[in-house]
Amino acid sequence: EAGVAQSPRYKIIEKRQSVAFWCNPISGHATLYWYQQILGQGPKLLIQFQNNGVVDDSQLPKDRFSAERLKGVDSTLKIQPAKLEDSAVYLCASTLGTGHGYTFGSGTRLTVV
Amino acid sequence: AQSVTQLGSHVSVSEGALVLLRCNYSSSVPPYLFWYVQYPNQGLQLLLKYTSAATLVKGINGFEAEFKKSETSFHLTKPSAHMSDAAEYFCAVSEGGNTPLVFGKGTRLSVIA
Q1: Least CB-CB distance to A98: which of B36, B45, B96?
Q2: What does the DSSP 8-state code read for residue B48?
Q3: Torsion, Cα of A31, A90, B99, A98 (10° steps)
Q4: How does pLDDT run across B53-74, given as a tens digit for each residue?
Q5: Which helix (H) or strand (E) holds B10?
Q6: What is the spatial distance between Cα B11 and Cα B21, in angstroms, rounded to a whole number?
Q7: Could you tell me which of B2, B33, B3, B10 has the C-alpha nearest to residue B89?
Q8: What would the DSSP string read from start to end of chain A?
Q9: Does the pLDDT of residue A1 top 70, yes or no?
Q10: Residue B71 CB neighbours (<10 A)
Q11: Cβ atoms B18, B78 nearer than 8 A
Q12: Interchain proximity B98–A44, CB inside 8 Å
């Protein structure tokens, strides 16, 4: 089966600019996650979707981050305006259910300068 | 809330030697436990998972892990390290249901020829 697709792979922007990331999960996976992985750390959950509804966004910095999952399939994560501390890899994952484990995309590496 | 502690941010072993990566978890309910591997500039790949079946879990690439409830541990082992095992390894825990994975900070494994 096809994996989780993410784009772009790399993005460099200046602080205060905006950026958007795209994720296409595995077909049939109802649950989708966005994680932030800062260099040298483990992934940290930003937001969890079940179909097109938000299940958990408690750790999403809502003053600058937003995410949506239209029609319960593709998802976009946006940062506006970006800060230097947003430099990280943004990972998208999808799953049939927690017991199955998650399938991760290759991630988008964001550098804010 | 669940949490994971990975002892040792960096482990170095000789090729052919035993690999032991340590993971301790905290969970208020019987947990689901996972080990993921991350190669440079790639996403996370599932190595193995424990979901309340056999306590000794075998995964891909010759890795295995044993769930020990009394020690709240889920250490990852491989009898003989290979150069291709050099990567970052993450332990993760979930309390099941729709609860998202919580990751440890990771252990970087180096394999010396």
Answers
A1: B96
A2: E
A3: 60
A4: 789 999 999 999 999 999 999 9
A5: strand B10-14
A6: 8
A7: B10
A8: ----EEE-SEEEE-TT--EEEEEE--TT--EEEEEEE-TTS--EEEEEEETTEEEE-TTS-TTTEEEE-GGGS-EEEEESS--GGG-EEEEEEEES-GGG--EE---EEEEE-
A9: no
A10: 10
A11: yes
A12: no
**A43 closest CB neighbour out of B49, B94, B103:** B103
Sign (positive/negative) of CA torsion A50, A53, A55, A61? positive
Supply B5's token pair.
């502690």
**Best to test chain B binding among A11, A56, A98, A100 (most B CBs inside 10 Å):** A98
> What pLDDT digit, counting tens, does each position of A84-109 carry?
999 999 999 999 887 788 999 999 99
User: In this structure, what DSSP letter does residue B31 have?
Assistant: P
